[in-house]
Amino acid sequence: MSVPIDGVGRVLVVIPTYNEADNVTDIVRRVRAVAPAVDILVADDNSPDGTGALADAMAATDGHVHVLHRPGKNGLGAAYLAGFAWARERGYDAVVEMDADGSHAPEDLPTLLAAARDADVVIGSRWTGGAKVVNWPLRRLLLSRCGNLYARLALGMPVTDATGGYRVYRTAALRAMALESVCSQGYAFQVELSRLAHRAGVRIVEVPITFAERERGASKMSPLIVAEALWRITTWGLRDRGVRRGRAGHDRWP
Ligand SMILES: Nc1nc2c(ncn2[C@@H]2O[C@H](COP(=O)(O)OP(=O)(O)OP(=O)(O)O)[C@@H](O)[C@H]2O)c(=O)[nH]1
Ligand SMILES: [Mg+2]
């Protein structure tokens, strides 16, 4: 059972997994070592490589570790939404999003949680002063930089890393964010939640992280995921612009 953290409360780290047998044990151990007060929920989509069973073995001997078994691969977004609902039902005060592949260093978690004392949403950013990106090929660096630039311009959000997936959300902020409208699956999910947080007017803070390319296991990133993000950002951007213009018109002509 988690122990409340000063100024933040009870925290659940949600780690979505699909075929992360090479990583899941290590990542859970590292989180337990740096943040012994938090609970962990591995949200596994029935990985064929036995990730779920490895997580069960840890849960059997450690009351801080829990496993949510989902029937089949249904995308990162759906796994996170299920994890958020699990946290809400059990009265957690904050949830953390963290990849299983080691790209999000558990050692950065105390910094993110410290920032959450004065924020509703903390984004671990790869693109703010003091951040580092280790071992990423140029193609991935460019994709992330351009994707974030596009998201920032299209959606008018003061966020340097809208696609990043290392975050803390207070559950009160998630309640204010109209999550029932969420429709995206891949990277777009992180952008969509950034947008909803921005629109809900909750306090968003970014902290620099050290992001490292995964060392083991296969990436689930695909051209389809990139296409989904581009398409959705464009649609939201046009919609938001329409709303802004509509509002401006309304102001002039009451
Ligand atoms: N439960 C669940 N987890 C998923 C799914 N797709 C990806 N994940 C997990 O989400 C996290 C991020 O996925 P990655 O494959 O690392 O994708 P990425 O970080 O966007 O891409 P890379 O930077 O290339 O690693 C990992 O922990 C994956 O195991 C899914 O459909 N269901
Ligand atoms: Mg990854």
Summed up, the helix count is: 8
Order of helices and strands: EHEHEHEHEEHEHHEEH
CATH superfamily: Spore Coat Polysaccharide Biosynthesis Protein SpsA, Chain A
Q: Could you name the CATH class? A: Alpha Beta
Mean pLDDT value:
93
Overall number of strands: 9
Secondary-structure-based class equals alpha/beta
Tell me about the biggest sheet? 7 strands, mixed
**First-last Cα distance:** 54 Å
Question: In short, what is this structure?
Answer:
Residues 13-175 form the Glycosyltransferase 2-like domain. The chain is α/β, with parallel strands linked by helices. It has a single domain (11-244), classed as Spore Coat Polysaccharide Biosynthesis Protein SpsA, Chain A.
Describe the structure.
With 254 residues, the chain is of the alpha/beta class. The protein has one domain: Alpha-Beta Complex (Spore Coat Polysaccharide Biosynthesis Protein SpsA, Chain A), CATH 3.90.550.10. 44% of the residues lie in helices and 17% in strands. It has 8 helices and 9 strands. A 7-stranded mixed sheet has the order 3-2-1-4-7-5-8, with helices on both faces. A two-stranded parallel ribbon has the order 6-9. Helix 2 (51-61) links the parallel strand 2 (39-44) and strand 3 (65-69). Helix 5 runs parallel beside helix 8 and helix 7 runs parallel beside helix 8 (223-252). It is globular. The structure holds guanosine-5'-triphosphate (GTP) and magnesium ion. Guanosine-5'-triphosphate binds at residues 16-18, 20, 43-45, 73-76, 79, 99-101, 103, 214, 219-221.
